Amino acid sequence: MQWQKKMGYRYARDVSISYTTAYSEGSISSIYAMTSYQKRREPKISTPMFQALSSHLLKPSTRSLTSPPMSKNYLITGAARGIGRGLSRQLLQSGHRVLLLDSNESELSNTSTHLPQSPIPPSSFRTHLCDLRQPSSITAAAALAKDFFSGHLDVLINNAAYTAVVGKSHPSELTLEDWNTAIETNLTAPFLLTQACLPLLSKSATRSQGGCVVNISSTRAVQSEPNNEAYSATKAGLLGLTQSLAVSLAEQGVRVNAILPGWIHVENECQAADERGAKWEEGLTEEDHRWHLTGRVGKVEDVGRAVEFLVECGGVTGSEVVVDGGVTRKMVYPE
């Protein structure tokens, strides 16, 4: 097989680049178009070599970039309302299996009746009452996850948060009880649950890749309003925990990342809203939307897409994704 000394290497290199670029963009037609162009431009390459190179580079991928992700096992805390409920619904609609944890029995029961029922089989999700302030309750939840997912957990989403302290009390009046509740729920629980679920997430002899942890922090970790000390401190601490866990758990194949939601409107994601038939846009004004660089207030679907990205992108760990419509990038001056 003869190569043209001056042009052969350059041609092979150009064709390889053309193939790789086009294939990464998922366009087989683009591959043929570009290789046809290269062939016309430098016709001296031997036909057998071109065919061999084409055959090798055009081997079909096991999964296209546009194909839906394979079904995974998710555990979500704070799943009865708000962002957690919305995420649970999205994941079930995408064909995943979900274990929903929450401490509010009434809300959790209501949520279970509002999750997709058809064509979703009942075995796709399970709800469990869990007090994240109690280590024994966390241990029990991890044991349930082991049973429900047959020992294989793909994604742990630490979403639950104690928000009763947000904007409620001046630092001089914040009680130690509220402070401790925020710390235990928002920071200690994510660590303990990650610790308890680690055997279900780690890679092993029968599992080449480990799972991942997604911690739901907040833009209040980097910005604040008055009287947010307990909440902001825990959400900032969650970022430090995320970075440290990402380093510590790398050898076990477990990736750990964080999402920082801004204003995500979820007033329609609760029992009271269900009873009155509330719509997502209820309570929002045009000014609320204009405040965001994206032109609208955040939706739970925005957080869901960030979760999907972090789960599917195996090259990302120890990172933070801000989902706030660009608000934290704005400079605000007094009128």
Q: Would you write up a description of this structure?
A:
The protein has 335 residues and is an alpha/beta fold. It folds into two domains: 8-57; 73-329, Rossmann fold. It is 44% helix and 11% strand. The protein has helices at residues 8-24, 28-41, 47-57, 82-93, 105-114, 135-148, 176-201, 229-248, 271-276, 286-290, 300-312, and strands spanning 73-77, 97-102, 125-129, 155-158, 212-216, 255-261, 320-323. Strands 3-2-1-4-5-6-7 form a seven-stranded parallel beta sheet, sandwiched between helices. It is globular and about 60 Å long. Mean pLDDT is 84; it is low at 1-43 and 56-67.
Give a concise summary.
This protein has helices at 8-24, 28-41, 47-57, 82-93, 105-114, 135-148, 176-201, 229-248, 271-276, 286-290, 300-312; strands at residues 73-77, 97-102, 125-129, 155-158, 212-216, 255-261, 320-323. By secondary structure, it is α/β, with parallel strands linked by helices.
